[in-house]
Backbone:
């Protein structure tokens, strides 16, 4: 059972990393805890579902949803977050409250537009479930591992090998100095939102495929659990977020299965966070150790 | 000057109040209004909410097409509680304070219903709960009835099914950590301990209603050597239990509850739903005229498959209609009539009688999913089990 549970834990951990990556990228550059990213996760799952059912192609579902939700991210950045942050001496809680409001609106909008009932992806994989002894590996899990790896590789390439990525890193390091040095910080912020919301959309679709079920409540648990993951990861550090996602996944599975810990599984993320912050207050990876 | 203004305001207030009262009196003579609430907008209960409101509307539509209650048309006053107890309390206060409302049907879960029940009891308003399983619902007082059996009855029946019909010896229990789950798990274990000591509970895990990932829980149930999983979950989680049992190739049968009696479970679990046993109150293969007529009418009206929730709501209205046809809309008269009902034919089988707590006594149906449809597997009709007074 141990090996099966380890695979279960790595699967859910990878999904957590993918889910929290969007909010990490946005925090990294703007310093905003963007709860609305959970709304992008929800909207992305639904947009992907509609495209999949309209075209019959899950690839188009992913690409279309990532693009449309990414553009939605830029729109929200330009019309809501940037104007708020442009005001002098803006309290950090104001964009957080705006993000909470956007998340609430997104949940209700999805419920009103798409209906409160579940929708199912019913994706047929071109391969069977792999069984080795008593251990099984489901095709959806392989897709999660592959998607997480590909998206993180793309992210690494953009951030480290492109001019836009250089601008992102410079802006994330110190926005004012980057601006003085001629870096287009607006483009860097837009990159954060298109990547951040695109990642969330991909994670939403992946969750819908994994559980064959999406509802307007899909974003509720990620809206708070992703906070634990990005804080644990070192606030705005993509690599830290991947490690934190895996740690939370492993902790949830093993503590709930092997111990009689009297707290809900969803609360384990915060227990791990508290313990880790007591030991290492800056999170797993400090801001100086970005990808 | 101030006194004059105050006097005018008071007079205006009295006139408006009198006009409103007259309006109420007129409306009262036009229709019989029945209050109703269900979790229509709650994402975690949306399929049940939809079945509930659809069936409430169907019941009212059909009774009106057949001439209403002794010639008076029925009007549905429906609310969405969103599976929120605060919202349910507000709705209950509003319905309880409305003199036009002759009686109320709860089409909601135990949480909202047990919050609403004492409010109606205190206000002297009669309520029939369609399918809430918590004993506190009917425990609120003599004006509160349930047309279905409480959770303890269903779970005790499930223990009999597990031990005698499914021949289980090692049971893993996965349950939603709410009243719905804990009430039934306790009754299930109590029955096993009392009458089937050879049947062991080898694994037991509660899960939050928000938890959609049950992979590791199902793995652990399999590793514990279970030969039956008793899943006391609502349809979304029950569907995930079935999918994981199937995809992890565990080959363990699953016994569910009425929470898994939903067309949405079949839609989510797909082929993995086959082989699921459930205890419920609806037997779709019952050739009873009421049952088959309801199934046909529901399919024609909504183009969907009916389920236990919808059928129970429909039946709760039939109980009220029967009372109103016989004794009118006086609350005390309705209460006495319902309390004395015997062998009343409903969509969910024969309602044998109401016990002193206001719970319906009726056989427990056992359904088996085959080829993506719920079908008859068996029935538990032992009087010692199906009467909640015996617990």
Residues:
């Amino acid at each position: 059972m141990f090996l099966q549970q380890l695979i279960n834990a790595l699967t859910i951990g990878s999904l957590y990393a993918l889910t929290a990556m969007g909010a990490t990228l946005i925090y990294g550059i703007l310093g905003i805890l963007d709860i609305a990213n959970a709304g992008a996760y929800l909207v992305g799952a639904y947009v992907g579902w509609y495209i999949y059912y309209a075209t019959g192609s899950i690839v188009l579902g992913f690409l279309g949803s990532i693009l449309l939700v990414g553009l939605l991210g830029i729109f929200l950045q330009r019309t809501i977050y940037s104007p708020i942050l442009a005001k002098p001496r803006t309290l950090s809680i104001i964009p957080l409250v705006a993000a909470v409001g956007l998340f609430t609106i997104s949940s209700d909008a999805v419920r009103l537009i798409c209906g409160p009932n579940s929708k199912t992806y019913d994706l047929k994989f071109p391969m069977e479930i792999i069984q080795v002894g008593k251990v099984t590996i489901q095709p959806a899990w392989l897709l999660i591992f592959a998607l997480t790896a590909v998206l993180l590789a793309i992210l690494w390439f953009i951030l480290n090998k492109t001019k836009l990525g250089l601008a992102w890193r410079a802006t994330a390091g110190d926005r004012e100095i980057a601006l003085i040095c001629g870096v287009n910080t607006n483009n860097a912020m837009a990159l954060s939102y298109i990547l951040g919301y695109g990642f969330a959309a991909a994670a939403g679709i992946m969750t819908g495929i994994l559980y064959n079920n999406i509802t307007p409540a899909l974003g509720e648990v990620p809206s708070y659990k992703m906070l634990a993951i990005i804080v644990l990861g070192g606030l705005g550090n993509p690599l830290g977020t991947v490690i934190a996602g895996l740690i939370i996944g492993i902790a949830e599975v093993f503590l709930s299965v092997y111990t009689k810990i009297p707290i809900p599984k969803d609360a384990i993320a915060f227990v791990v966070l508290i313990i880790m912050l007591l030991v290492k207050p800056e999170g797993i990876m400090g801001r100086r150790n970005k990808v | 000057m101030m006194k004059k203004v105050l006097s005018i305001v008071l007079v205006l207030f009295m006139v408006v109040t009198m006009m409103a009262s007259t309006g109420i009196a007129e409306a009262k003579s036009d229709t019989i209004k029945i209050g109703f609430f269900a979790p229509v907008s709650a994402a975690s209960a949306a399929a049940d909410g939809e079945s509930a409101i659809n069936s409430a509307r169907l019941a009212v539509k059909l009774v009106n097409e057949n001439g209403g209650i002794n010639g008076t048309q029925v009007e549905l006053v429906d609310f969405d509680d969103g599976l929120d107890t605060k919202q349910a309390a507000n709705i209950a206060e509003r319905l309880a304070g409305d003199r036009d409302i002759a009686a109320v049907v709860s089409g909601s879960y135990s949480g909202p219903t047990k919050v609403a029940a004492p409010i109606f009891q205190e206000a002297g308003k009669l309520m029939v709960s369609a399918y809430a399983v918590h004993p506190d619902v009917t425990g609120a007082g003599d004006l509160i009835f349930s047309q279905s059996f409480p959770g303890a009855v269903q779970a005790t029946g499930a223990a009999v099914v597990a031990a005698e019909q499914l021949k289980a010896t090692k049971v893993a229990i996965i349950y939603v950590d709410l009243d719905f789950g804990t009430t039934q798990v306790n009754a299930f274990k109590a029955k096993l301990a009392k009458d089937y000591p050879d049947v062991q509970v080898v694994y037991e895990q509660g899960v939050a209603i928000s938890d959609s990932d049950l992979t590791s829980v199902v793995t652990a149930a399999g590793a514990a050597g279970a030969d039956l999983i008793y899943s006391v979950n609502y349809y979304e989680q029950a569907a995930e239990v079935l999918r994981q049992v199937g995809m992890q190739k565990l080959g363990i049968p699953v016994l569910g509850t009425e929470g898994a009696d939903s067309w949405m479970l079949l839609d989510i679990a797909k082929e993995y739903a086959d082989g699921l046993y459930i205890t419920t109150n609806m037997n779709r293969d019952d050739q009873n005229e009421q049952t088959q007529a309801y199934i046909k009418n529901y399919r024609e009206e909504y183009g969907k498959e009916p389920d236990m929730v919808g059928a129970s709501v429909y039946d709760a209205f039939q109980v009220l209609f029967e009372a109103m046809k016989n004794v009118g809309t006086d609350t005390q008269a309705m209460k006495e009539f319902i309390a004395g009902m015997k062998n009343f034919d409903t969509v969910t089988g024969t309602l044998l009688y109401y016990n002193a707590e206001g719970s319906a006594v009726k056989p427990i149906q056992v359904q088996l999913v085959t080829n993506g449809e719920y079908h008859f597997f068996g029935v538990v009709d032992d009087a010692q089990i199906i009467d909640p007074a015996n617990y």
Q: What stands out?
A: DSSP finds 14 helices and 15 strands in chain B. Residues 13-28 of chain B have pLDDT under 50 and may be disordered. The two ends of chain B are 69 Å apart (CA to CA). The first strand of chain B starts at residue 31 and ends at 38.
